[in-house]
Design goal:
417 residues; alpha+beta; BirA Bifunctional Protein, domain 2; Rossmann fold; 2 domains; 16 helices; 21% strand; elongated; binds histidyl-adenosine monophosphate
């Protein structure tokens, strides 16, 4: 007998847990739309080269890509993150700038599954293309922060902020970081002893104790920014402060993808285990559009991990699943057609209603009504049917009364308000 299970590192999300997902995606969509971002839906797989641009030296590209040859012999990959897909779509279609997009999308990384780290995870994100105005950075960072704080209600979230400079100031910084790391090569972890000079920023991102202590005194890019990057960063910090968005400077924050320039940020939840405590992150990527074949076009965005946001919310005891799936349960002891009619009428009036099937007994139907968590049961028996009435039972108080069939919707609306 086959015993199929979801693949390692993946999850089925069923009710009532999925009610939290629905609420979160809806809140995110509302907030993004209110700020002028429009939904982008892009393919779940792309030419593998689209994703290679997120960083040849990153774990995401080197070790975790779900890539394969399709039946037409094309090398494609499942999306490991959302930014490259949105940028590829913009380069292909060239909508007007500023182009402001939001998405809710599954992402795939072949990681070692553990709490908060999955092979399929889901991101809520935005990308904004077409301007390097620091006020846009402020808008984007504040949006991510407020989703965590106000929509999910997380108290223990810290916003870390850094600037990674640009083509004018980063090369000189990388040279000095390389020299620093070269002098301490044998103190680095096994992986970075070999690769430190290829992409020295990755060493700052390494969580292994050896690299963390070897880089404690490493030069900080924040101290070496060129004039343009420095004043950009000052404007971002001042804008966030003006909006009351608390942030902490994090000179070692380099993030796990290579496309970042200037503003980078991460949101960390104190409720989560430190290895997986980033509930979201993002930043500027002012060269990515060009790398994907477009004209020079700056961009900035972020991705928030749905699973991690909900894990953090659960351990803080906030953002619960909705208490009930429906408000009303229709109990029909006359064959089932009356329940069909009444449920349909309620739903058309915007009232969430459900009913039992298969001609179950009155007792079984009432039990189903209780189990559903509905506030009200509407009962139609032979007697009610003949009298043109419906019994309205308040399932919380245990009280009931009869109303005319034609008055049911109005009565239910009043009872639920
Ligand atoms: P990222 O930091 O790689 O950035 O991922 C964003 C968020 O997705 C993380 O902070 C985390 O909450 C969640 N996440 C990532 N990998 C996993 C995983 N294996 N399991 C569970 N959750 C995970 C990006 O992907 C960038 N595209 C963000 C961005 C948008 N930057 C600019 N625009």
């Amino acid at each position: 007998m086959a015993d199929f299970r979801a693949p390692p590192g993946t999850h089925d999300v069923l009710p009532p847990e999925s009610g939290r997902w629905e609420r979160l995606v809806a809140a995110f969509a509302r907030r993004a739309r209110r700020a002028g971002y429009g939904l982008v839906v892009s393919p779940i797989f792309e030419d593998v080269a689209v994703f290679a641009r997120v960083g040849e030296e990153t774990d995401v590209v080197r070790k975790e890509m779900y890539d394969f040859l399709d039946k037409g012999g094309r090398r494609v990959a499942l999306r490991p993150e959302g930014t490259a897909s949105v940028v590829r779509a913009w380069v292909q279609h060239r909508p007007l700038v500023p182009f402001k997009a939001w998405y809710a999308a599954p992402s795939f990384r072949y990681e070692r599954p553990q709490a908060g780290r999955y092979r399929q995870h889901h991101q809520l994100g935005v990308e904004a293309l077409g301007t390097d105005d620091p006020e846009l950075d402020v808008e984007v960072v504040a949006l991510a922060y407020r989703v965590c704080r106000e929509d999910v209600g997380l108290g223990g979230v810290t916003l870390l902020l850094n600037s990674l400079g640009d083509a004018a100031c980063r090369p000189a910084y990388l040279d000095s970081l390389r020299a620093y790391l070269d002098a301490r090569r044998d103190q680095l972890c096994d992986e970075h002893r070999e690769r430190a000079l290829v992409n020295p920023l990755r060493v700052l991102d390494c969580k292994r104790e050896a690299c963390v202590s070897a880089t404690a005194e490493a030069p900080r890019l924040m101290d070496d920014l060129c004039e343009a990057c420095s004043s950009h960063f000052e404007a971002v910090k001042a804008g966030l402060s003006a909006l009351g968005v608390d942030h902490r400077l994090a000179p070692r924050l380099v993030r796990g993808l290579d496309y970042y320039t200037r503003t980078t940020f991460e949101l960390r939840a104190s409720a989560l285990d430190s290895a997986q405590n980033a509930v979201g992150g993002g930043g500027r990527y002012d060269s990515l559009v060009e790398e994907l074949g477009g004209p020079p076009t700056p961009g900035i965005g972020f991705g928030l991990g749905i699973e991690r946001l909900l894990l953090a919310a659960e351990s803080e005891g906030v953002f619960p699943a909705p208490e009930r799936a429906v408000d009303v349960w229709v109990v029909d002891n006359t064959g089932g057609r009356e329940a069909t009619l009444l449920a349909s009428e309620l739903r058309s009036a915007g009232i969430a209603a459900d009913r039992a099937f298969d001609g179950r007994s009155m007792k079984a139907q009432l039990k189903a009504a209780d189990r559903s968590g509905a506030r009200l049961a509407l009962i139609i028996g032979q007697r009610e049917l003949e009298a043109g009435q419906v019994t309205v039972r308040d399932l919380e108080k245990g009280e009931q009364h009869e109303v005319a069939r034609s008055e049911v919707v109005v009565t239910v609306r009043e009872a639920l308000s």
